[in-house]
Structures are given as C-alpha cells and as structure tokens.
C-alpha cells in the first residue's frame, strides 16, 4: 500500500500512540501492524474504509482469518482491531466502534515445560570449561537459570549491565521497562571466568565488532537468537534430556523452582519482568502440580 492512503496515515498515528503513550515492545507493535495491514487489505478488496464499516463487515473478516490463523494469533488480531477502533473513537476519527461488542476468545492456558532439579544440574554440567566456547556457554546457561532472562534480554546484555561486586544484572525488558535481578554465586563465578579467560579471545576475532556486548559468537560479534537456541539444544541433548528444551524452558524452570522453594509470587513477577501478576500466576499451577506429585509419592496415605 502507498503511504498516501488515508488508512496508512491512521495506522501511523495509531502506532505512534502505542510507542509514545503506551510504551509497548517493538515485537508487539510489529505484530499489531501486520494484523491491521491484513485487515485494511480485506477492506480494500470490499471497497470499504476502516472508518465506515459495520460489525457485520468485521465479523466477515474474522471468519476469513479463522481459517488462516491459530486461535492464539486470531485472539491477538482481535485485540489489535479493538485497540485500533478505541483509538479512532478517542481521536474523533469515527463515531461508531464496530469492534466494541466483539469478544476475545478464551485461550487454553498451556502449562510451561519445566526441568527437574536433577535435569538442571546435569544440563549445567555439560559445557567443557577447559575451552573458551565452554566457558562462554557455561556462563550463558548459569545466567539463564539464575535470572530467568528472556532470549533478547540475554543477548543484549552489555558490560555496563552487570555489577559483579553487588551480584546483580540490570536489563531492559518488554515495554522498555528496566529491572534488576540477582545473579547468585554460581552464575557470578561462571560469568567472571568467562569475562576473564573467555571473552577476550572472542574480541580478538571480531576486531571490536562485538562492542560492549557480553556474550559474543565465534566471529567476535554479538550473539543471535538462533545462536542461543542452538546452544541450549546442544547441551540438552548432551545431558540426555528427553523433552524439548528452549531458552524459555529455562525461564519457566527458573520461576517454578523459585516458587517451589518458597518465593512469593510478587518477587517472582518482578524478576520475570511481568507487568501483570496474572501472567506470573501460571507458574503457581506448575508448583501446585509438583507438590501434588510429591504428596502422592511420599505421604503414607496418598
């Protein structure tokens, strides 16, 4: 679509509001933009304008998208459209809101995969710390499990984000919200080993291409999401873990093990960087499931 179309101008204004006023994460904004562009394309084929449509027109679009999207993506698409029309009404661009009565389908809440404590210990032992790659990978695994960082947060870590004396990491999460997370002694020791005896070797290869990023690849550049996923998969296989292990699995495990150990939900929410505590509450289901298994296994009258 050309940028002189009215719908493009409306989309630009809406996206600007999401960025400036609501502070949404870039990935979220991109997803909303794709949803609305598909919506505009549908309306264009019908000869309709976004500011002059009925609820029936919107229902027709949703019915078409149901055949193309997963239930989760469809729910997000509806959220995008509802937010867009609330924006139009608030800005006086339209008087009617065809999405006002459209409900968001309830999503089945999948319990996250979690590693056992034994699996975690075995997993963390796999990197060969006699090599520079092993030192890096050991630090990566230890930091992920100790802090519950998201993939992007870990690969974006810079030297200025760590305080080895106090033992914490400062990171910028979703919505550009900063948080501080303790590292723990073992993660801190692994990170110190890598920074002293591993990272300098990677820097030489990159001729400063890695800048101040902490974790570098074999070419001395900052790591990619794909590179991190491969590292996690490699050591999960070496550890003989049957289930699929991803960086997010480690994050889930971090949260669940904290709750099982007695941490309060609010503290875990802060460390995970969840804006809403209801997002964190899914881990209480995992912890309760684990407690039930322990009770059934060890109680004399299960």
The arrangement of helices and strands along the chain is HHHHHHHEEEHHHHHHH
The average pLDDT score comes to: 84
CATH fold category name of the largest domain: hpI Integrase, Chain A
Poorly predicted ranges: none
Bin the strand percentage. Answer: under 5%
Strands side by side in the biggest sheet: 1-2-3
What's the tally of helices? 14
Termini separation comes to: 64 Å
CATH level-4 homologous superfamily of the largest domain: Intergrase catalytic core
Percentage of residues in helical conformation? 55-70%
Report the radius of gyration as a whole number of Å. 23 Å
Overall geometry comes to globular
Could you give the count of β-strands?
A: 3
Which CATH architecture of the largest domain? Orthogonal Bundle
CATH class of the largest domain: Mainly Alpha
Largest sheet: 3 strands, antiparallel
Summing up helix and strand content along with how strands pair, one would put the structural category as mainly alpha
